[in-house]
Every structure is written in C-alpha cells, then in structure tokens.
Amino acid sequence: MLSWHHTHDDPNWIYPKLNPQWKESIIKEFKIHPVTAQILVSRGFTTLDQIHDYLYAKLPDLYDPFLLAEMPQAVERVCKAIRDSENILIYGDNDVDGMTGTALLTEFLQSLGANVYFYASNRGTSRQSLIVEALEYALKSQCKLLITVDCGITAAAEIAKVVERGIDVIITDHHEPTDKIPLCVATLNPKLLNNSYPNRDLTGVGVAFKLAHAITNHLVAEGKISPKKVDLKRYLDLVALGTISDMGALKGENRILVRYGIRQLRKTKRIGLTKLISISDVDLNELSTFTIASKIAPRLNSLGRIDDPQKGVEVLLIRNTQVAEKMAEELDLNNIERQKIERTMSAEVEILIASHPEIAKQKAIVIHSDKWHPGVIAILSTRISKVYNRPTIVIAIDKELGKGSLRSIPEFPLLNVLKDNADLLVNFGGHDFAAGLTIKESNIEEFKKRFIAAAEKKLQEHDVTNKLYLDAEVNFHDLTFDFMESIKLLEPYGNENPPPILYAEAKQAWPPKVVGKTHLKLYLEQGDRMLEGIAFGKAAHSPSLRRKDLTLRVAFTPQINNFQGQSIQLMIRDFRILE
C-alpha cells in the first residue's frame, strides 16, 4: 500500500486562531469544556446560533424538501405513476451513494404500492451507453417513468433519447451540471443555478431521501395516507451509509442525517446490511463514520469496481437470511480481490514515481497505464493526492480509451479546468474536488501537458505543501473521560468536520518502541501524568528519539482505548523535537 512517507514527515503546522473573549462567551453560553470551546473558535464559528445548530440540530431542523427547485413536478409525476399503476424504473450510479439511493427509493415506493424495478449502472460500460442500457431495461419492463439516482445531470443527449421513446424522466443527482440541463419532467439537484435549496452538499442518496420526504408530506397533506403509515427514519441508515461513502461534507443538514443515520444503522432491520456489518468485523456499538468508511463501504464499493453493482442494491433490500449471508460472503471475497488489485497497482505507481521523481515535483500529478483496473483508480488518485497534496489524475487505458479519476485540493477546483479542455475529452463530470473523465488514448499527452500547465500557473509552493491544522493546545490533566465525553458533541466526524487535532509539550518518559515494523509507540509525561501515544508509519524516526530527557511538541487526536480496561491514548499525527 502506498508507503510514500517523505511528504508526511514535515507538514506545515498551522496553529489555532485565538480569540479569548469569543471563547469565553462560548463557554458561558454552552457550559462546555474550554478546550472544546477553543476547537469551535479554531473551526471558524462566528455566532452562537451557528454553534447551537452545529451541536444540537435535530431531525425537525431538516430543510423542507420543497425548497428544491422542481420538487412539485417530481412529486406530482410519481404520485400519478402510483395512482395509474405504471411501472417505474429507479436507475442508480454504481457506487455506494448510488446503491443506497436506489435501494431507498425502491423500498419506499414499494411501501406505497408502486410497481418498481431497479437497475444499477455498470462501470465496464462508457457513460453514454449507461443511459442507453437503462432505456433498454425500461422498455423491456414497460416502464413509463425513469428516476435516476446520483447520475444523469450531464447526460442531456442520452436522456433526450429516453424521452423520445415516451418515457418520462426525473433526475435526482448532486453532481455539478457541466453543460446543458437535460429536458425532463423534473431535475432535483441542489447544485442547479436557479436553486434556492440551502444545502449544496447533499449527496445522491440525500437527494433521493428528499424526494421520499416530499412525496410523504404531499400524500399526508392530501389525506391519501395516514402520517403513521410511513416512517422516514427507517431509511436514514441508507442515507448515512451513502453520505459517508461519498465523502459528503459533514456540516449542516448532512450532520443531522448522518448522526441519526448511524443510530438507525446500530438497530437496522436490514438483514443483508447486518450480515455485511458482521463480516466486516465491526462491533455495532463501535459503529462510527470511520468504521463505515474504512470497513463497510469498501465491501459494497468493490461491486461497482470489479463486479456487478446490482448485487449491492440487492444486499440492501434482501429479506432472506440464508441468501443475505451468502451475498455478504461474496462481497467480502470481492473486497479481498479488489485489495489485491489495488496492492499491485500501488506498487507499480510507487516504482513509477521513484524512477521518475520529476512527476511529484510538478504542481499536478497525471499518470496513466494500460495495465491498471479502471475500478480501482479512484482509490489510488485519492491516496496520491493526499500524500503529495496535489491535484492528481490516474488514467486506466483499455482499447485506446482512457478512464480517469481526478482528485484535487481546495486551491485548485477541477471543473473549470475540465471545461477549458473539453475539446480533448469524450466526456467528464463530478465535483470540483473529485471528478471522472473519459479520453481517447491519443489525446492523453496533450491533455496532461495542459492540465499540469494550468496547475503550475494557479498554484504557489505553499498551496502544495502538506498542512496540519491544529485546533487547540491542551494540558495532559485536561485529557479526562469527561473531556472525551464533551468532544463527542463534535461528532460525526468526516469530510469538512475532521476529528480535532490537539497539541501539547511533553517529556519522553522512556525511549519509543517500534510496533509492527512501521509504527512507533511513545511514552510521554507532563507533570505527574503519563500517556502512551501511537504514531503510525513513523518508525523511521526511532533513532532520533533515543536521547535522554527529550522534550517533544506532539500533535495528536485523543482516543479511548478499550484494551484491558479503559485508558486514554494519543493518536499522534506528527511531532517536533524541542532542543
């Protein structure tokens, strides 16, 4: 697995903003721990209302789904389909966001008595043929209405073909519109220009949930169903799973959806999901955004990457225990296969960059090969971009056509650069910091040249330096179980709401110990308190820490360790030796 540590070693420490008066008013208003208050100052909150919403927002604080432009038309058309017993096709993208959104709408509409089919797009095919595939499936199943989930916003030409065949289309998507908006019954997307919806950060499953919410409100208001008939809370496990997997920003409304969604996941009645959680070796009580993103989501994602994503939707909907067990085991095997492919590709990338160091010296990294699996490039581009803190494109070539996965940094949004180079691309889409493209092999070199030139022009040296943002200085005597309880208020952690990073100065009580070849265990004391810390991937630093009476400045996230009773340990992100 990509073990390039050189850039990790010396991130630039960005110390917290201090504002003692503001911190005091936060402590006074919310009666919270001073360190927790400092974290909120560092995170840029400027009003007590903002902080109140962040800490205490509840389900009734979700926005009205009818704030999404064109929601009334969408609701009207779906209700007509239910009334007239028309067949409906839910057509979802092939990642966890798409699978969960597809499962959600399928189950929800079936509960209202609708005739529903579902179809998950397959990665092996090019973006254009995806909608064509859906059209064939819709015609075969005599569907009069097609609802997309997590896709469709950039497929105007393909959707026109579906409409020509007499099938109505509702698009639910959250990707940035890149050209003309498809003509259809309704387009639900928080990123549309004419959109007044307050949360641009909804994911695909989030938009699907909003449609279900709006349909429910409409049918209850019309007296067609009793408010007791539909419990929307039961779908929040799917919303949390999709939002976390798709790196949805965990602020505002998404925080509410994920916070309650994790509670729902802990008691989920979905047999397939329960089996998947147990095979992922996750304890339901320990369920967190981290275990979902690192253990559960990859197993579902492996279907879209190397197998059939249709099975992902099936495992979320399944009612039969034996079949669920078999499917969960199959997902696990798929994931092991994906990891093998990923390890091989990681090793190849490592060799490539080691033998061509100039690749990592430029302000953007663009690499391609005909040996790579298109299903795994997204994982690689994410990791390379993190390690080198640069816009990164990884392209897998097959039959003279390249599929590319792009990841970027806040200082370099992608979509305008892609629009500027559209003449070289077959198609592209996504977000400003995570996108995909298809390109003819013959155009790759020219595209690479232009993309790197754009990055060199826009980015300064400090933009591509790795940064470590610190939230607060802390004394060891502050690190109590009460404090650990207090910072739980900041959960769920994830994209745009990372776990807090604190820092402290402490002496080494005794020399560090190398654990599992690459990690380092540190023994730190401050006053009369001693704490253990683990620094992943830092074993190479062991020799420099073997002197007596060393004082370190350590950046870390505190954690509760449940091994042999309970203790607080430090997850060390970085350290500095103080002379």
Write the layout of secondary structure elements.
Blueprint: H1 6-9, E1 12-14, H2 20-30, H3 34-42, H4 48-56, H5 71-83, E2 87-92, H6 96-111, E3 115-120, H7 127-140, E4 143-149, H8 156-164, E5 168-172, E6 186-188, H9 204-221, H10 236-245, H11 253-266, H12 271-279, H13 289-306, H14 310-317, H15 321-355, H16 358-361, E7 365-369, H17 377-388, E8 392-398, E9 401-407, H18 415-420, E10 425-430, E11 434-440, H19 444-458, E12 467-469, E13 472-473, H20 481-487, E14 502-515, E15 519-526, E16 529-535, E17 551-561, E18 567-578
Parallel strand pairs: 1-12, 2-3, 2-4, 4-5, 5-6, 7-8, 13-14, 16-18
Antiparallel strand pairs: 8-9, 9-11, 10-11, 14-15, 14-17, 15-16, 17-18
Q: What can you see in these coordinates?
A:
It is a single chain. By secondary structure, the chain is α/β, with parallel strands linked by helices. Helix content is about 40%, strand content about 20%. The protein has 20 helices and 18 strands. The strands form four sheets. The protein has a five-stranded parallel sheet with strand order 3-2-4-5-6, with helices on both faces. Strand 10 and strand 11 (about 435-440) form a beta hairpin. The radius of gyration is 25 Å and the shape is globular. Residues about 1-10 have low confidence and may be disordered.
